[in-house]
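ARCHIVE CARD
CATEGORY: sequence design from structure
SOURCE FIELD: tokenized fold
FIELD CONTENT:
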């Protein structure tokens, strides 16, 4: 009975982590948990960047290297993601969670993305997570991207920022480390004040 209780508690914890990350990894007319001030600051910073879905697709498989430093994410060893080829302004996407505890199998979440404008995309989730997430990119290049995520409706999750890096990149660790640190600084400049955790260390 004790083992069953542990398994149920662990499954619930994994579900909550997935809910949070489904919000991390997506026209704001009626913002709920989105900060209009942060969004406007991002639009000033990103020069109304476009073709986000195509850029994510061209990036290929990527990994999250910068996430909020909160207890909910402390069990995660790594997060991988991928965006399929876009068609008519939308694309399929997925991310996979891998945990330090090897007894917990990897968990993959599939969702759909819609391009909006000026570096803004909308993540559309299944009924499991409800609602949609909004993702605003401060910058997005061939190998790295910096974003702000917020939630509208459904199961709420705190707003968050982060950085993703293409797995098949030609960059040295020093360049990647600088890009991730710049993302962290830019998130502060747009007035998202968070403590971050580096899922991968590129400082050496």
């Amino acid at each position: 009975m004790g083992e069953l209780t542990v398994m149920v508690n662990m499954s619930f914890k994994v579900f909550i982590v997935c809910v949070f990350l489904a919000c991390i990894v997506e026209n704001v007319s009626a913002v709920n948990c989105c900060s209009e001030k942060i969004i406007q600051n991002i639009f000033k910073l990103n020069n109304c960047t476009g073709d986000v879905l195509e850029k994510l697709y061209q990036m290929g498989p990527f990994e999250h290297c910068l996430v909020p430093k909160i207890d909910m994410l402390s069990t995660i060893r790594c997060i991988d993601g991928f965006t399929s080829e876009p068609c008519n302004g939308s694309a399929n996407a997925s991310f996979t969670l891998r945990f330090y505890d090897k007894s917990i199998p990897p968990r993959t979440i599939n969702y759909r993305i819609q391009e909006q404008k000026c570096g803004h995309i909308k993540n559309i989730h299944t009924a499991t997570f409800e609602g949609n997430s909004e993702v605003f990119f401060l910058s997005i290049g061939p190998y790295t991207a910096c974003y702000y995520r917020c939630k509208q409706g459904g199961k709420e999750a705190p707003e968050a920022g982060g950085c993703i890096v293409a797995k098949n990149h030609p960059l040295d660790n020093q360049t990647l480390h600088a890009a991730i640190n710049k993302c962290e600084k830019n998130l502060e400049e747009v007035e998202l004040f968070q403590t971050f955790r580096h899922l991968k260390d590129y400082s050496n």
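CARD ANNOTATION: The CA atoms of residues 6 and 160 lie 29 Å apart. The chain has four helices and nine strands.
SHELF: design records, drawer C
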